[in-house]
Amino acid sequence: MVENDIDGIIEQRNIEEIVPHPKNDSIYSKEFENISKLSKSIEKYGQLEPIVVTSKNTLISGHRRLKVLKSLGYKTINVRVRDFDNEVEALINFNVQREKRGEDILNEIQFLEAEVYNKTQRGRKKKGESGVIDKLSDYAKRFEISRMSASTLLRIEKDCPNLIKRIKLKGNVDGDITINKAWGICSESKGTTPPIESNKEIKVLKGLLPKINRKELLDVLKTTYPYNLMGSYSKLSNSTTFEFDEDRFERLDSMRTEMIANLDFLKSLDAKEILMYNKVDEVRNLNISAKSKSEVFNNLWKATDIFNEELTIKEILNIKPILTKTSSNDVFNTIRVLTHSLHWKQNVGRNLKYLVTDKVSGKYLGLITIGSDVVAIQSRDEKIGWNTDNKFKQKKINNSAIASTIVPTQPLGYNFLGTKLIAALTTSKIIRDDWEKEYGDKLVGITTTSLFGSKSAYNGIKWWKKCGTTAGKMILTPSDKFYKFWHHWLKENYENYNNLIKTENDTIVSGPKQKILNKIFQLLGITSTNYFHENNRGVYYSPFYNNTYQFLRGEINEGDLEPHSNNVGDYDSIMEWWQVRAVNRYKKLLAEDRIDVEPIWYDEINEGDVREWLELRGKNPLIETD
Predict the structure, then answer these.
(1) What domains lie within the chain, and their CATH numbers?
(2) pLDDT score of 7 more than 50
(3) Cβ proximity of 445 and 542 under 8 Å
(4) In a 10 Å sphere around its CB, with 0-12 CB exposed, 13-18 middle and 19+ buried, how is residue 597 labelled?
(5) How far is the CA of 119 from the CAs of 85, 133, 155, 157, in angstroms?
(6) Is 601 exposed, middle or buried (0-12, 13-18, 19+ CB in 10 A)?
């Protein structure tokens, strides 16, 4: 009897013709088999489920059933006939629901590595085409764990494979530890956190404890991992209490392990890859309705007919930008996230946000954000010639700001040098007046940095002076999920948190993020130097007065400031300067057939495409799926 089935053809075959798969006994050890229960079931109810064989009678699924059926004297049995591209992968996949010993799980992983992952071709997978396997996603799906946990499992597989036998993975009857616990054991075995192994050392510790001042001991515990995860800080009583809540500790320790996995992944990326990875994360978490995003998109400035040269030049010359102070509303957030490649995070401290709109058409031209200036940028500080006393004791840092967002809408930015326009508008008088009105300090200059190196749209803008490039190393910032979680934990549990974001004169400045990250890493026992990265950026400064630098050095008073001779911030000068260059840029692109018609709009950024792009560059992408 033969019948069709979506999983292959079901028919009856001679039991003696069925050949066990040659790899089965190497993966699933015989001594672990317990078939007595299965034997009783088949003896009572018969063969309820066909075994799976290839067209050449090689057994893929049902090795234990075949053994029982033979022992019970069956001559013919029901089989489902299917052929597979990779028989070893099929063999393991058919056992995914089965209870196994830890040894079997480890064997499965090792055979998958040798027979599947190492044999699949790298490259871009076309729709409907097999052959490229995302190992991280496969582990997550196979063991029903998150991609972060799958990443940790991969690290354990690489460094401490035998520990896999003990992990509580799906189907593992020997599992007695979590993935995070296994990674902790693995880290200790590699010497990352050497354990105390002898009773002698424990006795020494017990002998010392009574001699240590209780307050000093508590101070050590609340700042030392893992004991600080057990503490709870009360802002009301300004004290920390310790209680071992196992569930809370496991939850926090799990988040720590996942963050380390995330940092390890980010460390493997270059600056452009980090940019794209963060953009996927940012777009996915943009909580704005499709209707609002559509309304913003339809109101972006664009030429009526980009290929009509006369009309387009007329529209460029008619643009009249106006700066409107705003907040982080839907319009601002939509433009900031969906038209710019850089992942945006608001500065700690002062912040002014502006929506730049064309007065003539009412369309959006771009965004500006001005915030508290970065405390230390070597090339800028050398250009100005100021020191820490100038910045903090004399509070001159409050007279300078950073343009942390200079974003034109597209294709205004590309076709018409929109970045140069928005950058020039950051020097506007309206921004200086708002700063003084809002914060009580006269704004005498602004810093900004380019995205990558010294090649930047800011070059050639007459009001922006190139200072050099950023120097030194920075700590990698983990993905938002982890940074927000641990930043909140730090604020709630670290009594000196305010010292991280303020100077000695209570001046809140931009750039405390590195201090915050460093403190989080320190409290979690993570070596920050393991996660340094270099992304040198061009540094630019726009002085608003002829003697701005002298003022910032404390050599003159506010009343001695002299207006700059280059008309910095003058609206008409900005527009006249930009329009000539915008028209020339447009004509050049038109003549070379390089006009960009489509706006940049990241709303439809495809996670699969980004994952494949990273894979093509040799990276194993940690992109969480919903």
Answers:
(1) 1-96 (3.90.1530.10), 291-472+536-595 (3.40.630.30)
(2) yes
(3) yes
(4) exposed
(5) 12, 10, 20, 18
(6) middle
Write the pLDDT tens digit of every residue in 307-352: 999 999 999 999 999 999 998 788 888 888 777 766 556 666 788 9
pLDDT band (50, 70, 90) for residue 129: very low
Closest residue by Cα to residue 80 from 28, 19, 13: 13
Q: H/E/C letters for each residue in 178-204?
A: CHHHHHHHHHHHCCCCCCCCCHHHHHH
| Token couple for 218 | 């508590």
User: Over pLDDT 90: what percentage of the chain?
Assistant: 34
- Is the pLDDT confidence value at 31 over 60? no
Phi and psi, residue 588, nearest 5°: -65, -45
H or E segment at 13? strand 8-14
Residues 486, 520 contacting (CB under 8 angstroms)? yes
How many Å apart are CA 578 and CA 462, to the nearest integer? 10
Around 461, how many Cα atoms within 13 Å sit in the side-chain half-sphere?
A: 31
Q: How does pLDDT run across 387-440, given as a tens digit for each residue?
A: 999 998 999 999 999 998 899 998 899 999 999 999 999 999 999 999 999 999
Phi and psi torsions of 288, nearest 5°: -130, 140
Q: What are the tokens at 420?
A: 């140069």
Q: What token pair was written down for 296?
A: 């913003």
Strands (E), 258-330: 321-326
- Among candidates 43, 29, 112, 93, which has minimal Cα distance to 72? 43
Structure tokens at 605: 């950024």
DSSP-derived pairing of the beta strands 474-475 and 532-533: antiparallel
Half-sphere exposure of 388 (CA within 13 A, CB side): 3
Residue with tokens 């070596």: 527
Q: How far apart are CA 532 and CA 521, in angstroms?
A: 12
Average pLDDT of the chain, as a whole number:
82
d(CA 313, CA 345): 36
Provide the angle, in degrees to the nearest 10, between the axes of the packed helices 147-159 and 135-143. 100
Look at the pTM and tell me if it is higher than 0.70.
no
Q: Is 229 helix (H, G, I), strand (E, B) or coil?
A: helix
pLDDT over threshold 60, residue 32? no
Helix runs in 57-172, H state only: 63-71, 87-93, 102-115, 135-143, 147-159
Distances in Å between the Cα of 302 and the Cα atoms of 105, 344, 370, 395, 408 are: 58, 24, 26, 43, 12
**What average pLDDT does range 80-100 have in this prediction?**
88
Enter the tokens of residue 527: 């070596």
**Type of residue found at 212:** I
| pLDDT confidence of residue 231 | 66
Phi-psi region of 56 (alpha: psi -120 to 50; beta: other; left: phi over 0): alpha
